[in-house]
Design brief:
Layout: H1 2-10, H2 15-41, H3 48-67, H4 72-94, H5 98-114, H6 116-138, H7 140-179, E1 183-188, E2 193-196, H8 198-204, H9 208-211, H10 216-219, H11 224-237, E3 239-247, E4 253-265, E5 268-277, H12 279-342, H13 348-378, E6 387-389, H14 391-408, E7 412-417, E8 425-427, H15 429-445, E9 451-461, E10 465-474, H16 508-518, E11 523-528, E12 532-543, E13 570-574, H17 578-590, E14 594-598, H18 601-610, E15 615-618, H19 627-636, H20 639-643, E16 645-650, H21 657-664, E17 668-671, H22 676-686
Parallel strand pairs: 7-9, 13-14, 13-15, 15-16, 16-17
Antiparallel strand pairs: 1-2, 1-5, 3-4, 4-5, 6-8, 8-12, 9-10, 10-12, 11-12
Helix pairs in contact: 2-3, 2-4, 3-4, 4-5, 4-6, 4-7, 5-6, 6-7, 12-13, 12-17, 13-16, 14-15, 15-16, 18-19
The protein binds adenosine-5'-diphosphate.
Length: about 700
């Protein structure tokens, strides 16, 4: 079986296999040839001893060959052993020198075990023996001829068959021994070193002789105990890879990676350790670690910067709140006062101017609202409301708002809401209306003749939500294909020239897209220049369980309620801005209320404590005590303070401001600029019913 395996290996398809095959052929052919030579030279002595010794020699040869790997000592084996064995056979064949055959074998063994020098002497012995044998039987001249012939044949065979591979293997060995980049240590399992390569000599600084007196503990002076344990583990597992610290002769240390493997030589287990100096790798590791540490530092700095950016964002938001306040406060004066002016008796020119002033104020307010909305969305401080939505009312509100403008331009204006659009939905009606107003407003703005059509329909519906689609078509100027991708980006206008006929900030569609995103929908457009555009967006709104009563129904601004007019109520206004104060007082008086004013929070607290009031209109931002603090004090002050209705009338109109006012104890929140209608609506909501009834019309105030 084993032999069979060796033969298989011998014939494998590789240079080593080929070499082994040649060896085998050599073993099979040369001995019989030499034997034949001997028998021919002494034909009378074919005895059993000759054949036995011959058979033994061949068998020993094959066995020895098979045990060894094909190293130079293997291939030189036949060169030494076979001739000697054959000479021995020749002696045996002559009948008087059998001992020589036996003495030839140890020489061959020595050749196998100890290398070329012995082989040369064995070869010499063989040649001499050959010479002696033939000389004894046929005379010296014939013997010398035979021996010479034999030596030449052997030499040629050696050179032709083995010379090349011998040189190659010798070169390999030389590389392994001298030039191998890693250190190689061969140790016994008790740790004693038995062989090292040249790199080890260079690296550790010991001579070979010194090395062979050392144990592994001398190389690992820091942890000889671990070294011993590792030897034990190696003998248990057969292989081991680990890192440790080695010492040179001069006492310096260097980090190494050791790959140790057990092998058996002549029945004794040995450890072959490949030792790699990993100083450079360790340095690279250290560099990597410090890079990682630096990266971690950078990361934390980036986090810090992000936190700072966040803080800056918050500051931006606060700045916006202030800007909002500062812009809305004068706008309140402008729009409110113009409204009051329009309610007086004016001639046609004055009325026209006042109307232009009011619509300009409203346009400016829209721009302010757009900018603030956009900045809030950018700052991530935009939250949608979740209140009841009546989609029909929203669409109708948009129709009421923009229908007159479309009619002015002579456009057909079709608005429809499909029958299957549910009435009871929850979402943010204000933002829904904002998107719709933006799209329909653009449609009206960019269409000079033809038609604008708006349709609300259901796209899909499941148990707790419905996805609605709003289509806005127009027959206006349309948009070129190359401009479509820019449409929903901020500040982009198709016509950005200074001579463009249509105004606008270019923010409307960008805000609309962000709002639609927040409503879990999509917004898109198809358009043909000269023919018109079709914008649409979807929005997902929750279905309100039918049992739940509406929390707060958002509707289009209510008309001035006649039942309010003339109702007697005492209203206190806390407002520091004289224009806005005058406006509020004028509005209230126009609605028939008795109104008084204070200009800061503390005065409001005192006034509530001093007299009974039906309602307090409270500005939030005031010098000294602000409206929120004043409300908290009033609420905490007792029965009168607990009962009074407090309505915030403030330019603080950012998301969350309403909630802050309600949390402070107020009942309602009116963002500035406050229109007469909005104020009337709030009064109607909060004042107790008037038993005396109401008059039917609002008296025009004479200046
Ligand atoms: P703006 O406030 O300037 O109208 P928008 O974001 O609402 O900003 O619109 C951006 C641009 O898209 C407009 O300036 C206009 O060029 C184009 N646009 C929007 N809607 C229409 C439409 N219905 N028809 C033609 N062009 C439109």
């Amino acid at each position: 079986m084993r032999l069979q395996r060796y033969f298989n290996v011998a014939f494998e398809d590789s240079p080593a296999g080929l070499r082994r095959m040649v060896l085998l052929l050599y073993a099979a052919v040369v001995p019989p040839f030499v034997l034949l030579l001997c028998l021919v030279s002494s034909p009378g002595s074919r005895d059993a001893a000759t054949l036995t010794v011959f058979a033994l020699c061949v068998a020993a040869y094959v066995w020895v060959w098979a045990r060894r790997t094909p190293t130079p000592s293997t291939w030189i084996f036949p060169a030494g052993f076979v001739p000697v064995a054959c000479c021995g056979i020749a002696f045996a064949a002559t009948g008087d020198a059998a001992f020589l055959a036996v003495s030839g074998a140890p020489v061959a063994w020595a050749a196998v075990l100890f290398g070329p020098r012995v082989v040369v002497s064995a070869w010499g012995t063989g040649v001499l023996a050959c010479l002696a044998v033939t000389a004894e039987t046929h005379g010296w001249a014939h013997g010398a001829l035979n021996a010479g012939l034999y030596a030449v044949i052997q030499g040629l065979v050696g050179v032709v068959v083995y010379g090349k591979s011998w040189r190659r293997e010798a070169a390999h060995l030389r590389v392994l021994q001298r030039d191998f980049n890693d250190i190689q240590l061969v140790l016994r399992l008790d740790g004693r070193l038995v062989d090292v390569n040249d790199r080890a000599l260079r690296e550790y600084g010991y001579t070979r002789e010194e090395f062979l007196r050392l144990g592994i503990g001398d190389l690992r002076r820091d942890d000889p105990e671990t070294a011993r344990l590792q030897m034990t583990r190696l003998s248990a597992h057969g292989a081991l890879v680990f890192e440790s610290m080695h010492c040179r002769k001069d006492g310096t240390r260097f980090p190494v990676e050791v790959s140790a493997r057990l092998f058996v030589e002549d029945g004794a287990p040995l450890c072959n350790s490949l030792v790699r100096d990993i100083t450079a790798r360790k340095a690279a590791d250290d560099a990597l670690q410090s890079t990682n540490a630096r990266l971690a530092e950078e990361r934390s700095r980036a986090a810090e910067l992000a936190a700072r950016a966040d803080a800056a964002n918050r500051a931006k938001s606060e700045f916006l709140a202030n800007v909002s306040h500062e812009l809305r406060t004068p706008m309140n004066g402008v729009i409110g006062m113009t409204g009051l002016l329009l309610d007086t008796t004016l001639d046609a020119t004055q009325r026209h101017w006042a109307e232009v002033a009011q619509s300009s104020g409203e346009a400016l307010l829209n721009v302010i609202d757009d900018l603030l909305d956009f900045a809030k969305i950018e700052a991530g401080r935009f939250d949608l409301e979740h209140i009841d939505v009546d989609v029909r009312a929203v669409v109708a509100g948009v129709e009421a708002l923009l229908g007159p403008r479309a009619a002015e331009k002579g456009l057909d204006f079709d608005v429809c809401t499909d029958d299957d659009v549910p009435a009871q939905l929850v979402g943010d009606p204000g933002r829904l209306r904002q998107v719709l107003i933006n799209l329909v407003g653009n449609a009206v703005k960019f269409t000079s003749r033809g038609r604008v059509a708006v349709r609300a329909s259901v796209v899909s519906r499941d148990d707790d939500a419905v996805t609605l689609r709003f289509d806005v078509r127009d027959t206006g100027i349309g948009i070129a294909a190359e401009h479509l991708p820019l449409l929903f980006q901020k500040f982009s206008q198709v016509d950005a020239s200074t001579t463009r006929p249509f105004g606008g900030t270019g923010l409307g569609l960008a805000i609309s897209r962000q709002l639609v995103d927040l409503m879990h929908g999509t917004i898109d457009v198809i358009s043909t220049p000269g023919e018109g555009s079709r914008f649409w967006f979807t929005a997902r709104l929750s279905l309100r369980p039918s049992a739940a009563p509406p929390a707060h129904v958002e509707t289009a601004e209510a008309p001035l309620p006649p039942e309010l007019v003339g109702r007697r109520a005492r209203v206190l206004v806390a407002e520091d801005n004289p224009v806005n104060l005058e406006l509020a007082l004028s509005l209230l008086r126009r609605l028939g209320m008795t109104a008084d004013a204070v200009t800061d929070g503390e005065a409001a607290v005192r006034a509530v404590a001093a007299e009974p009031w039906d309602l307090l209109l409270m500005d939030v931002q005031m010098p000294g005590m602000d409206g929120l603090e004043a409300t908290r004090r009033i609420r905490a002050s007792g029965a009168r303070g607990a009962e009074i209705v407090i309505v915030a009338m403030t330019a603080h109109a950012m998301a969350g401001d309403r909630e802050r006012c309600l949390a402070a104890g107020m009942n309602d929140h009116l963002p500035k600029p406050v229109s007469t209608r909005a104020l009337a609506g709030a009064l109607l909501r909060w004042l107790p019913p008037d038993p005396a009834g109401a008059r039917a019309s609002v008296p025009a105030e004479t200046p």
